[in-house]
Amino acid sequence: MRSRILFFGLCIFFLFLIIGSCPRAGSWLVKKDEPVTADAIVILMGSIPDRVLHAADLYKEKMSAEIMMVEESMGAYRKLEERGVRLISNSNQARNALVALGIPAENITIIPGDATSTQMEAEIIREYLQARPDLDTILLVSSASHTRRASMIFKTAFKTLENPVTILCSPSPYTNFNAEKWWRDREDVQKVLGEYVKIASFLIFEKRKLREEALAK
Question: Of 105, 107, 125, 130, which has the highest C-beta tally within 10 A?
Answer without folding.
Answer: 125
